[in-house]
Amino acid sequence: MSYGTPKSLEDVEAYYTHIRRGNPPTAEQLKELTDRYEAIVGGVFPLRENTDRQVAALQAALNADKAGADVEFVCYQGLKHTYPFIEDGVEAMAKDGITQAVGVVLAPHYSSMSVGGYIKRAQEKADACKIDMGFVESYHMHPVLIDVLSRRVTAKIDQYIEAGATRDEIRVLFSAHSLPERILAMGDPYKDQLLETSKAIADQAGITNWQFTWQSAGRTAEPWLGPDILDTLKQLSKEQVEYVLVAPIGFVSDHLEVLYDLDIEATAVASELDMRLMRIESLNSDPAYMSVLSDVVHTRLNQMA
Ligand code: FEC
Q1: What is the annotated signal peptide range for this record (predicted)?
Q2: What value, to the nearest 5°, has the Cα angle with vertex 301 and ends 299 and 305?
């Protein structure tokens, strides 16, 4: 399961309306979002192809990792805010005669407002279709995930050092999608899981100059978790930090929140502040990430059997 992205610029309004729980955006809000899509690679929607590739690569990894078990894995796709919706994916499984399934989200950290929402919808549809469905809730501390992300952080730090920075001059910002502040009062594990992942990567990469920051907060009236990355950059500029490396650990794919919010918006703010900003490469369908997903799915399936 994954967030989903519009099929085309014409599809942005329906997509945005779904995110807003059926409330259509104003013309101004729609234009603002459409402009953001147009700014990333000319209105192409990389998340769609990315997700397709991830689904195909996971299916191959699951079948390669089954160690002779008499079972064939088939992966179905279900998106949160556009076609094929989560319910469409579960229905397609039922039509194909699938009776047992494991659901996994292309996001490593659990929040009742993110992964919890995917699971609830899939579970409801699976119950209606009489499919025995189990779920992976999070995999934010999987050693292979920590390892692959640490290596990506180290690669960019080395690039800064080659360009003349010293290790002490580089500040690593781990980031993730903000959520409304009320999740904290609900005892949601999201923030703690993100801090755990950040610390594990920093320890493995031998980094002490790091901090966590939020990004991509929604445009609603209620307070969202902060500080936002744009404010963090302004603060770092006051501390005379010149080299910033962003590691958006809450995301696994190249999509709007990475390609626009970081590569365009945050990069422009950093440049105005005379700072250099790089980000680590997204995992997309990296075989190491696919092996993490395959491992957590196999583990969950064994618990169900
Ligand atoms: O590339 C793309 O087309 C999709 C990029 C995209 C990803 C993504 C991931 C997450 N979101 C999460 C939470 C919220 C909450 C709201 C919200 C709103 C938006 C809007 C767009 C959008 N999100 Fe998103 N999100 C992506 C895109 N998101 C566009 C609407 C305009 C805007 O506010 O910018 C607020 C609405 C609500 O109350 O429901 C909350 C979380 C994730 C990471 C986990 C996941 O992937 O599911 C959490 C990718």
Answers
A1: none
A2: 120
Six-digit token string for 90:
């579960």
SS3 at position 137: coil
Q: How far apart are CA 267 and CA 212, in angstroms?
A: 17
257 lines ligand 1 (CB under 6 A): yes
Q: Could you tell me the two tokens for 45?
A: 């929607």
Q: Is 83 annotated as a binding residue?
A: no
Q: What ipTM was predicted for this assembly?
A: 0.91
Per-residue pLDDT tens over the stretch 147-187:
999 999 999 999 999 999 999 999 999 999 999 999 999 99
pLDDT digits (tens, 9 = 90+) for 69-128: 788 999 999 999 999 999 999 999 999 999 999 999 999 999 999 999 999 999 999 999
CB 277 within 8 A of CB 266: yes
| Nearest CA-CA partner of 191 in 130, 134, 140 | 140
Whether residue 36 is annotated as binding a ligand: the answer is yes
Task: Tell me how far apart the alpha carbons of residues 21 and 220 are, in angstroms, rounded to a whole number.
Answer: 13
What average pLDDT is seen over the chain?
Answer: 96
Ligand 1: nearest atom to the Cα of 106: 46
List the alpha helices (DSSP H) in the chain: 12-19, 27-39, 46-64, 86-95, 115-128, 143-162, 182-185, 190-205, 229-238, 256-259, 267-272, 287-304
- Please state, in angstroms and rounded to a whole number, the distance separating the CA atoms of residues 60 and 53: 11
Q: Model pTM?
A: 0.96
